[in-house]
Design goal:
This protein is α+β, with helices and mostly antiparallel strands. Helices cover 42% and strands 11% of the residues. It has one domain. The protein has five helices and four strands. β1 and β2 form a beta hairpin.
């Protein structure tokens, strides 16, 4: 999950034969607190953009219960909803992970080691983003 600029907010590692949709709510819950009003950090995004795979009533309801507006493309409708304007940010962030050889091809057998390299890659992406925007 990324913010609007493509900075990774939370990552979750699953097996290859598992659909991403099953991890939507745990991934939203894994977002760390960020700066907000004093004593009241922001825990959740206001909106969540997702593709058609995430379009289901239970997911929309769970997101609304968490006070997140689901901006999810609806199934069985024509393409051109305009959400692609926002979805490319996630794809770009995934492409930023490709230069890390250990993440491009999974060499690790243990999930905890692969998760450590994935976290390290996200840390480096955040570092590059923040140093380029502040300096």
């Amino acid at each position: 999950m990324t913010d609007a600029d493509g900075v990774p907010l939370a990552v979750k590692l699953t097996s290859g034969n598992r659909h991403d949709v099953t991890q939507l709510i745990p991934l939203v819950d894994a977002i760390p607190a960020i700066a907000g009003k004093v004593g009241h950090p922001i825990r959740r995004p206001k909106e969540l953009f997702a593709d058609r795979a995430y379009d289901s009533g239970p997911h929309r309801e769970q997101l609304r219960r968490r006070k997140i507006e689901p901006m999810i493309a609806e199934r069985n409708t024509e393409h051109g909803s305009g959400l692609g304007v926002f979805r490319w940010v996630v794809e770009r962030t995934i492409s930023w992970l490709h230069p890390f050889r250990r993440l491009r091809i999974r060499y690790e057998r243990r999930a905890d080691i692969h998760m450590a390299f994935l976290t390290l890659g996200c840390i480096l992406i955040c570092h590059r983003y923040w140093t380029s925007s502040f300096c």
